[in-house]
Write a structure and sequence with these properties.
Low-confidence stretches: 1-9
Order of helices and strands: EHHHHEHHEHEHHHH
Helix content: 25-40%
Radius of gyration: 20 Å
Number of domains: 2
Strand order of the largest sheet: 1-2
CATH class of the largest domain: Mainly Alpha
CATH architecture of the largest domain: Orthogonal Bundle
Structural class: mainly alpha
Strand content: under 5%
Largest sheet: 2 strands, antiparallel
Number of strands: 4
CATH topology of the largest domain: Peroxidase, domain 1
Number of helices: 11
């Protein structure tokens, strides 16, 4: 179970009227192209940033809603979300900083950090082979970054536990399975899966859901199942088309080649297997569903209108006047 699985309070999805496509057309006409150019520049030298930005988006929207709370740095008085648990391995913050700096030069105090994350995610997805999509904007930045709010699905969660987290955010079972397609370009580390590569001393069986034998042998050689090992290599969650957003991830888990327990369970659980099979058979359908699910995720718990603020620096709250 995820150590940050805490009590849940519903985080509402906003109505379509609260956000709109082209929100900055008048106030900062080049806002979206500025973000796109920054993301494209960094992707050109490091394509792995697509997965990093996509993961940042998920971790921001899934905790307090899409309010850029994940960007706040800790202070002497308070630790922020960024430096707790699995958030500590997030990266890509300098890309958001660069986009914000350019936007502040062009349109001061206009474009929120929350919208920058959302726009950067859309651009990263397209660069990695995903479908381009219209993104409603108009989010404002939150005024809290609370470590006690962290509730993220973990790699060992049961389907039912993970679904409870998604439902608390107004998302469906299909959304959960579709958004797992982000793992088509994701990575994990050997430390996250070493237990799964070992046999139970009581039963002699391997821990976790079934895994293709040849694939397990490959991971055992890569990871070294000795827990005292200081090596902690990264592993692509989709071993087939590791740098492309496509439906190969679903075909892989149907073959027993899911790296994370939670991914493999999607192909085994009766409630999700049918969705996995459908996505594995239709890449165009997956691409459309993935884009739609990202937009729905981006509507979770947003601040609009006069709520929150527009940060001048994404890493710190504005100084009260």
């Amino acid at each position: 179970m995820n150590p940050f699985f805490l009590f849940l309070l519903p985080i509402a999805l906003v109505s379509a009227q609260d956000l709109r496509v082209g929100f900055y057309d008048s106030s900062c006409p080049q806002a979206e192209s500025i973000v796109q150019a920054v993301v494209q520049k960094h992707y050109g030298t490091d394509p792995s940033i697509a997965a990093a930005i996509l993961r940042m988006y998920f971790h921001d929207c899934f905790v307090r809603g899409c309010d850029a709370s994940i960007l706040i740095d800790s202070t002497e008085k308070a630790k922020s979300e960024k430096f707790v648990g699995t958030n500590r391995s997030l990266r890509g913050f300098k890309i958001i900083d660069e986009a914000k700096s350019k936007l502040e030069s062009r349109c001061p105090s206009t474009v929120s950090c929350a919208d920058i994350i959302a726009l950067a995610t859309r651009d990263a997805v397209a660069l990695a082979g995903g479908l381009g999509y219209d993104l409603p904007t108009g989010r404002r930045d939150g005024l809290r970054s609370d470590v006690h709010s962290i509730t993220l699905p973990g790699p060992g969660d049961l389907i039912s536990d993970a679904l409870q987290l998604f439902k608390a955010r107004g998302l469906t079972l299909e959304d959960m399975v579709v958004l797992s397609g982000a793992h088509s370009i994701g990575v994990t580390s050997c430390n996250q899966i070493r237990t799964r590569l070992l046999r139970s001393p009581q039963t002699g069986k391997f821990f976790g859901p079934a895994m293709d034998t040849n694939f397990r042998d490959k991971l055992q050689k890569l990871c070294n199942t000795n827990f005292m090992s200081k090596k902690n290599p990264e592993i692509f969650l989709d071993q087939n088309t590791s740098m492309a957003i496509d439906n190969s991830f679903y075909s892989e888990i149907l073959r027993g080649r899911g790296v994370l327990e939670s991914d493999q369970e999607l192909a085994l659980d009766n409630s999700t297997r049918g969705i996995v099979e459908h996505l594995a058979s239709d890449n165009d359908g997956f691409q459309k569903k993935f884009a739609d699910a990202l937009v729905r995720l981006g509507n979770v718990g947003v601040l609009v209108g006069s709520e929150g603020e527009i940060r001048k620096n994404c890493r710190v709250f504005n100084t009260p006047s």
